[in-house]
Amino acid sequence: MWNKVPAIRVKFLLILIPVLTLSTVLFTTVFVVTEGADLRRDISLRVAAIAQANATVLADRLRAADFTGARSILASMSVYTEIRCVAVTTGAEAFAAVWPEGGCEYPKKFMSITRDIISNGVLSGKTTVNYSFDTVNNQLWSQVIWTIVLFTLLLAVTVITALLAHRVTIVIPLMRLIESIRLAEQKGSRQLVEWQANDELGNVIAAYNRLLVKLAYEEVALRKGEERLSLAIAATRSSVWDMDLAGGHIWWSPEFPLLLDYRPDELPMTIAAFESLFHPEDRDRVISESMRHIAGETESYSNVYRLRCCDGSYRWVEDKATTIRDAAGIAKRLTGVIADITERKQAEVDLARERSILQATLENVDQGIVMYDSNNRLVAYNRRAADMLNVPLILLTRRPTFDEVLRCQIERGEFGPENAFEQEEERWRLCPVEYFCFKHRRADGTVLEVRSNPLFQGGFVCTYTDVTAESLAAEKTNAAKQATERAYAQLKDAQASLVQ
Question: Rg of the Cα trace of the chain?
């Protein structure tokens, strides 16, 4: 409904008037409520003071048995407009009076304050003062009426001023811009908009004028671009096609038959001829996906399938298309580009074969091997690595980061005592950043030789070799050497002793 409003000034008023009205109502309500609360509180405090003073004076009159004076005190309450009636009663029924003489007409409508009348320290009666807030309400209503009058005047002045400013700053330049666009659409005439301003609309009009100036140059560039596009299509072994869904016709550029080694006039431009080129295994899938896209079930169309060549062989093509729809969303045309990707598909097959060979090689290596990318995320491994690292194989299949693998090793007690990893942490942290080699003794006593090799473009490769036997042999050799050294030292001590 907002988009259907015919004029910007109407939208402007639809925003301005409610905002001003709501803000004024809100501020007025807050003011009236706050002011009313303050006035009512003041009246209640004043009436309470009057009631207390009235009780004190009445105590003196009742003690002196001056009932006439007591009634005069009640009658003097008429000077206070907020007090509606006053009643005095005594416990011994010796005196009772009320003002006005008829009493309160609607006592439940009024507020009341009661004070004890104490004479010579003894409770001799009570005085009740009934009062109302009519004066406050009248005052508040007067303020509300004046606020409404002032708001109406302010709103009228604001609307008139806003409409004048809107016409001068927006309507006039916008109408000139619209007229220039209408001439360009209907008559093909490019007329510059005569308007200069430093505001946003002025910048838009200046940009529009610059655009008109550039259109002539762009038309020339467009023709040259079309020539370049034709050359690029031919060089990239691609072809452009267009399908009229309403009429059931199809058109393709002359490069399409050449992709499949046909002569340009050998393939009739019909949908049936185009569909007859599909590989039997791809036909149903391609037609189904294209119909789903035409029906609006998918936002874009991109498909890879095989087409039959002139010699009966098949070539892989990549087909990307865009649907042109009417205002109701119904597809009218389907335009796309077909590119020959046979070489790419063959490269993918070769790459997959090489990866398979590499993975088979890794699996037959006795070492554990892992490779991480520049983000320290695992990209390649063998099963032996899971055994060497003492982590579940399923963890490696999830492509974890280097830190996640270390965390798993810590949780599985790979580093023995609690402080074992703290002692080795610096060596492990050097693996992703520089060439490094060290020996790690697992909690079960197995000794691993860890070698890290950083890659040129980021990431690194780690190998883990079980050198437990070599380490044990080295330890035994070292122990034997130390025993020999100790025996030699003891022999020298014995010789020195014998000489002495």
Answer: 50
Question: For residue 345, what is the DSSP state?
Answer: H
- Token pair recorded at residue 492: 């020298």
- Encode burial over 36-54: b for 16+ CB neighbours within 10 A, e otherwise: beebeeebeeebeebbeeb
Q: Which two tokens stand for residue 80?
A: 């206070």
**Order of all β-strands in the sheet with 111-119:** 96-99, 83-90, 122-131, 111-119
Mean pLDDT of the chain: 81
**What's the rounded mean pLDDT across residues 78-102?**
72
State the sign of the Cα–Cα–Cα–Cα dihedral 109, 113, 119, 123: positive
DSSP string, 219-245: HHHHHHHHHHHHHHHHHTTEEEEEEET
346: enclosing H helix or E strand: helix 342-363
Give the pLDDT confidence score for residue 225 in this predicted structure.
67
User: Tokens at residue 47, please?
Assistant: 């009436």
Q: What is the pLDDT of residues 210-228, one digit of tens each?
A: 888 887 677 777 777 666 6
Is the pLDDT higher at 122 or at 147? 147
Contact 89, 96 (CB under 8 A): yes
Separation CA 274–CA 295 (nearest Å): 20
Mean pLDDT, to the nearest integer, of 107-117? Answer: 77
What kind and span of H or E run contains 389? helix 383-389
- For 449-461, give one letter per residue: b (16+ CB within 10 A) or e: bbbbebeeeebbe
Residue 9 — φ and ψ, nearest 5°?
-65, -30
Distance of alpha carbon 483 from alpha carbon 492, whole angstroms? 14
| Sheet strands (E) in 91-131 | 96-99, 111-119, 122-131
Query: What is the pLDDT at residue 2?
Result: 65
CA 142 – CA 107 distance, rounded (Å): 26
The three-state secondary structure class of 329 is coil
Q: What's this model's pTM, rounded to 2 decimal places?
A: 0.39
Convert the pLDDT of each residue in 33-51 to its tens digit: 888 888 888 888 888 888 8
- Residue linked to tokens 């910048």: 203
**Amino acid of residue 339:** A
Q: Do 323 and 293 meet the contact criterion of CB atoms below 8 Å apart?
A: yes
